[in-house]
Amino acid sequence: MTTLDVARTELALLVLYLNKAEARDKICRAIQYGSKYLSNGEPGTAQNVDKSTSLARKVFRLFKFVNDLHGLISPTSPGTPLPLVLLGKSKNALLSTFLFLDQFVWLSRTGIYENKERAELIGRISLYCWMGSSICTTLVEVGELGRLSASMKKLEKDLKKSDKYNNEEYRSKLKKGNERSLALIKAGMDIVVAIGLLQLAPKKVTPRVTGAFGFVTSLISCYQVFAIASITTEGQDTLNKESLTMGFPLDNNLGIVRLAYLV
């Protein structure tokens, strides 16, 4: 491949990434919380950017509650302990409720829904639901990391003296462990962000702290959406079809590409 072909392919993948509503939402989220950090709750340009971006993000989340509603009624992986199943379903229910109620907040800010007091109450309830889902996610990730660690130790014993890093199953588990660790960090930080937005500890979790934590979790989300993964045959076909519709044919010889999938 020539340098121009590589550049065209990378540009095509960037276009595919930016065409994802989830990707645009996470980029706007980074801008929102970055502005919140800069403003520290004080009036000015940064606070205006924070408020306007927050409103713009709500458009990307319209009807997004259906995703977690689908997850709520979907079957779980075989062998998953009941406590983790219940926590996972609780996370789906709470997150779906948050996204559903958040639509009323958007309606209020646009002037369609005129009961401001009720809209403010709905907004606080939705944030509590988001905080609850982040707590559930944290507990799920801790539990899954524990299960993963136990299975990796068992696999290490089975491998004995052979190099574990040459084992495909061990590398796969190690990769999953890294992904879950990152998700755990993000969920834990999101709890702090929720506390800041609800002003449950205004002296400790200031707007600047909320903005800093929110900005970091936004970058993590952007990374998760813009994950680097080995392309499967099905994924290659899907990307080729999507890219060809926009006039960006991909080279099938590419072994590794950036996929715009939400982790």
UniProtKB/TrEMBL annotation:
GO terms for molecular function: identical protein binding. Involved in peroxisomal proliferation. Promotes peroxisomal duplication, aggregation or elongation without fission. It comes from Rhododendron simsii. The lineage of its organism: Eukaryota, Viridiplantae, Streptophyta, Embryophyta, Tracheophyta. It is a multi-pass membrane protein. Belongs to the peroxin-11 family. GO terms for cellular component: peroxisomal membrane. GO terms for biological process: peroxisome fission; regulation of peroxisome size. This is Peroxisomal membrane protein 11C. It comes from the Eukaryota. It is found in: Peroxisome membrane. Keywords: Membrane, Peroxisome, Peroxisome biogenesis. Its main location: membrane. Homooligomer. Interacts with ARC5 and FIS1B on peroxisomes.
